[in-house]
Amino acid sequence: MKPTAGTRMFQTLNYTVLSLIALVTMLPFLYVVIVSFTDANEFVTKSIVLFPEKWSLDSYRYILSTNTFLQSMGVSAVLAVGGTALSLAVTSSLAYVLSRSRLKGKQFFLVAILLTMLFQPGMIPNYMLVDTLGLTNTLWSLILPVLTGAWYVFLMKNFYQEMPAELEEAAKIDGCSDIGVFFRIMLPLSVPALAAFGLFFAVGYWNTYFNAILYINDDALRPMQVILQMLLIQASTQMADPSVAAMIQSEQTVPPEVIKMAAVVVSSVPIVIVYPFLQKYFVKGMMVGSVKG
User: Fold this and answer.
1) For the chain, which residues score pLDDT lower than 70?
2) Distance CA 262, CA 33 (A)
3) Model pLDDT for residues 79-121, shown as the tens digit of each residue
C-alpha cells in the first residue's frame, strides 16, 4: 500500500525526533573523544572545545609513557577473558543443576543463594575472608569474590526450566549422561543468554577498581583502572602547583582534564569494540528467564 501523506509526515517527524535524541545521547561521548585529542594550549585558553584547531596525541602519549600501563592492560584483559569464562561456566552449570527437580536439597540451595542477594556481608568481612584464604595480591582475589551472582543464577535457572523436558529425555535415550546433556544440548541452546551475561561479566571485570584497591598491593598485578586513576592523581597534583600550570605554554604539560578524557576513551574502547559482535544475542538474551504470559 502506498503510504498516505499523514503516514509520511509521521515517519519524518518520528525519524527526526529519534535522530535528535540519538545525537544528544552521543554528544557527551563525542565531547570526551574531542577533548582527549585537543592540544593543551588550546584547551587551557578556551572555555569549551567543540572542534579543536590543533589536534594532539599528548594525552595518550602521557598515558602510554608509564612502563606499567601496558602491563596493567594485560592484567585487565586476563581478568575480562578468564574471569568471564569462569563466571559463565559456574553460573550456567549451577543454574542447570538447580533447574532439575530431582536434585536433593534443592530448596536449601535456592534459599542459600537467595540470602546472598538479600544480605551483603560488607567490605571488612569480605576482606577478612579473602585474606584468610590467602588470595590477597593474586588475581584470584579479583575473580572469586565476584565469580557469579544470585540474579544471574536465577535467570539462567528459569531459562533451563523453560526448555522442553523431551530434549533431555531424547538425549538420554540416545545414551547421553547428565553431563552430556548439559554440554551437547543445553549449552548450545543457551548461547544468547551466555552472550548477554558474558557482556555484563566482561564489563565488570574490565572495570575492576575497588576490589583491586583493597586486595592488590603489587604494581605488577594492578588492573588498568587503578593505573589510570594513579595517572590522573599524578597529573592533578602537578597542575595544582601554579608554577607548573604556568609552564603549559612552554613545556606542553598535559592538563589533567585532557588526561581524564583520554583515560575514559582508553577504558571504553575495548568494550565498545566487543559489543557489536554480541548485539545480535543481546536482546534475546535479556529475555532469559522472563515471565511469559
Assistant:
1) 1, 47, 49, 66, 235-253, 280-293
2) 7
3) 999 999 999 999 999 998 888 877 788 888 888 888 888 888 8
Distance of CA 128 to the CA centre of its chain: 26
Q: Is the distance from CB of 91 to CB of 156 less than 8 angstroms?
A: yes
C-alpha span between 223 and 216 (Å, rounded): 9
For residues 86 and 201, give the distance between their C-alpha atoms in angstroms, rounded to a whole number: 10
Question: What's at 178, amino acid-wise?
Answer: D
Nearest to 186, CA basis, from 165, 211, 212, 210: 165
Q: Name residues whose C-beta falls within 8 Å of residue 249's C-beta, 6 or more positions apart in sequence.
A: 41
**Residue 267, all three cell numbers:** 577504558
User: What cell does 206 get?
Assistant: 574490565
**285: which residues sit within 8 A by CB, 6+ positions away?**
192, 193, 194, 195, 196, 197
Q: Is residue 36 a contact partner of residue 20, using CB atoms and an 8 Å limit?
A: no
3-state secondary structure of 55: strand
105 residue type, one letter: G
Q: How far apart are CA 39 and CA 46, in angstroms?
A: 11
Helix (H) or strand (E) holding 34: helix 5-36
CA dist 78 and 237 (Å) reads 31
Give the other-Cβ count within 10 Å of 147's Cβ.
14
- Going from the N-terminus, what domains does the chain have, and what CATH number goes with each? 61-286 (1.10.3720.10)
